[in-house]
Amino acid sequence: MNERSVGDDVRDARARLALAGIHGPDAELLAAWAARSGVGEIRVDMAMGRPFEPDALDRFRAGVARREAREPLQHITGSAPFRHVELRVGPGVFTPRPETELLVEVALDHLRAAVAPTVLDVGTGSGAVAIALAREAGARVVAVEQSPAAFSWARRNIAALAPGIVLLHADARDAAALAAVGVHAGSLSALVSNPPYVPHASVPADPEVRGFDPDRALYSGVDGLDLVRDLAPLAADLVAPGGLVAFEHAEHQSAAIREMLEDAGFHDARTHRDLTGRDRVTAAIR
Questions:
Q1: Which residues are annotated as a binding site?
Q2: What is the fold, at CATH topology level, of the domain defined by 79-285?
């Protein structure tokens, strides 16, 4: 019989995770996941000195051990929040990050003035950006993903959250594949992408990133900009005059991306900073 309370177990988990270099609410989030309840309910259980149910305690201990080994919290729970939805995630797909919400905001600001906009999301991954734009902008969204594993996650999320999205399993540089779903020269109101942008020689410091995010979602050439280099002229062809192109990127890449977009024929290139003050999204107008 477990005579310990939820509070005892959560406090022990916090200490174990801290020794593993993990700080924050992970212990409480794992407790809520294990108990199939909310964080608020777990905090009430902690305050009242209630114990875990036996099956929940087993799940909690297993989840803490996985997190202690630096498996991403989202892989353990199978869920990642993004804006107003919960996305299903797991092995083979890039875990959505809060900073990517800035890419959505930049696109939404532009699309508010558009009539029946059409948007291409390149490298959709879990479908996070595409789903947000479909739900919040009322746009017709075409989402492209080349990775078979990521495509499977995107298909699952889109079916549940934004079934009107056209999901394409292809390389976005395949003109015939795009034309087959109605994407052709001058047809887009916006092209957006959170592409791979880590230089091949730069190994991410976080074990959760380097050990669990797929390489093809992280790395793109010597300077990290190989895919953006291909997408800039593609966007110049596909985006209608007055339309938008927007890329997420690392903070040191903004000047290079502005130059690429200007060379491709875009104007008013501007870099937007995330909540930490880092350059995060660069956008321009066709």
A1: 123-127, 145, 194-197
A2: Rossmann fold (3.40.50)
